[in-house]
């Protein structure tokens, strides 16, 4: 059976405290352990308070303590007016920062304007902190025109140009201020030439995409199938193939889940009203393993080494090597998918389409998961640098 370094997922929304009924530390980190993820980094929004102040970070740490089955780190948030909080947040233990260029979906985490960015980015450069960006330009997003149950209409409301425009802005800012930028959940393959060019120029820019953009195609999504709703949206088949080519080329550095669950009832309704988010924490290794079959090195690079480096954890995480944490996954390509551990089970995937299962997960040398069974107590650490 293949033995892999424990996966590092740098894009996970655990909504505790405040929206724990959406997802909590216990359910999310057990899903991670069952999926071969030994380290995850929690996003600064969808919990209340948001992690945009030291007080918010303290609330996160207090909520997480004693509930983590894998190691957990935290991103802080950049929102309008909190530039003064960035240094204290970094000193308090966040691994970097995240911002939205368009509305985030929750009111306590407002998006930043260019003026906010030009204030925060020099400070982040001074602190040598990375800025993760939800890159869609609000000026190019529109309300859904016509039937809100039509996937086509939803897709057209969030065009590729919105991503391209936002990424161009971030490249401009990175060049101007020297800030390290990471584009989260790239969906539009049209932005790839821009990204390739910026990297050739030597700008500090990394990019992730998600399993759902690499798996599904808009042509196959039925009207009303809001379990597929996420933002930016899943695009056409031709776009998906170009994302794969960019992964092969190395222009896209990594794959993270953007695990963003909500109560099942919130996924009901039309593409305007349903919550945008896909929960795939436990399934990402199975999905990517099946896609990358025959390329043994792909999963560890895209899902361990590169995200560990993004989060500044490469001295402990991301590979099997002397001196690093012994975070190890034993993968059984012939295993039966295990029961899902995250809180709300509505997902667009059919697990039987992605055969294989985690046989065992080791965290710092201790076996924390063994074919459907967990260690008796949670052994995850909170990763405070
Ligand atoms: Zn997200």
Fold and architecture overview:
- With about 375 residues, the protein is an alpha/beta fold.
- About 30% of the residues lie in helices and about 15% in strands.
- The protein has 11 helices and 14 strands.
- The protein has helices at about 25-35, 55-65, 85-90, 115-125, 150-155, 160-175, 190-200, 210-215, 235-250, 285-290, 300-310, and strands spanning about 5, 5-10, 35-40, 70-75, 75, 95-100, 130-135, 180-185, 205-210, 255, 330, 355-365, 365-370, 375.
- The strands form 3 sheets. It has a 6-stranded parallel sheet.
- Helix 3 (about 85-90) runs parallel beside helix 4 (about 115-125).
- It is globular and about 50 Å long.
- The model has no long low-confidence stretch (mean pLDDT about 95).
- It binds zinc ion (ZN).
- Zinc ion (ZN) binds near residues 13, 43, 258 and 260.
Short description:
The chain has 385 residues and is α/β, with parallel strands linked by helices. It has eleven helices and 14 strands.
Low-pLDDT windows of residues: none
Task: Give the number of DSSP strands.
Answer: 14
Q: Tell me about the largest β-sheet.
A: 6 strands, parallel
The ligands bound in this entry are: zinc ion
Major sheet: arrangement of strands: 5-6-7-8-9-10
| Percent helix range | 25-40%
Report the radius of gyration as a whole number of Å. Answer: 19 Å
Q: Number of helical runs?
A: 11
* Quaternary organization: single chain
Q: Give the helices and strands as they follow along the chain.
A: EEHEHEEHEHEHHEHEHHEHHEEEE
Termini Cα gap: 34 Å
Shape: globular
Pairing-aware structural class of the strands and helices?
alpha/beta
How confident is the prediction overall: mean pLDDT?
96
- Name the beta content range: 15-25%
């Amino acid at each position: 059976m293949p033995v892999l370094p424990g996966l590092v997922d740098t894009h996970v929304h655990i909504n505790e405290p405040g929206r724990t009924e959406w997802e909590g530390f216990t359910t999310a980190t057990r899903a991670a352990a069952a999926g071969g993820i030994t380290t995850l980094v929690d996003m600064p929004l969808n919990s209340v308070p948001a992690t945009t102040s030291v007080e918010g970070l303290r609330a996160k740490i207090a909520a997480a303590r004693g509930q983590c089955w894998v190691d957990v780190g935290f991103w802080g948030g950049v929102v309008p007016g909190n530039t003064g909080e960035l240094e204290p947040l970094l000193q308090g233990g966040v691994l970097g920062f995240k911002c939205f260029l368009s509305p985030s979906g929750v009111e306590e985490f407002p998006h930043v304007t260019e003026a906010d960015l030009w204030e925060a980015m020099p400070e982040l450069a001074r602190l040598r902190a990375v800025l993760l960006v939800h890159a869609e330009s609000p000026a190019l997003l529109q309300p859904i025109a016509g039937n809100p149950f039509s996937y086509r209409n939803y897709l057209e409301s969030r065009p590729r140009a919105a991503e391209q425009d936002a990424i161009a802005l971030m490249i401009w800012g990175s060049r101007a201020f020297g800030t390290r930028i990471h584009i989260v959940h790239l969906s539009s393959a049209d932005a790839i030439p821009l990204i390739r060019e910026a990297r050739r120029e030597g700008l500090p820019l990394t990019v992730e995409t998600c399993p759902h953009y690499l798996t599904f195609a808009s042509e196959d999504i039925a009207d009303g199938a809001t379990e597929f709703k996420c933002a930016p949206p899943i695009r056409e088949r031709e776009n998906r193939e170009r994302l794969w080519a960019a992964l092969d080329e190395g222009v896209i550095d990594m794959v993270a889940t953007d695990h963003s669950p909500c109560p099942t009832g919130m996924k009901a309704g039309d593409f305007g009203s349903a919550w945008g988010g896909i929960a795939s924490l436990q399934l990402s290794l199975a999905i990517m393993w099946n896609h990358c079959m025959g390329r043994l090195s792909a999963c560890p690079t895209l899902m361990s080494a590169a995200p560990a480096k993004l989060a500044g954890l490469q001295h402990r995480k991301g590979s099997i090597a002397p001196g690093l944490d012994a975070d190890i996954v034993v993968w059984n390509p012939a295993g039966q998918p295990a029961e899902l551990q995250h809180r709300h089970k509505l997902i667009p995937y059919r697990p039987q389409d992605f055969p294989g299962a985690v046989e065992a997960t080791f965290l710092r040398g201790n076996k924390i998961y063994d074919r459907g069974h967990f260690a008796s107590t949670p052994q995850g650490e909170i990763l405070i640098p």
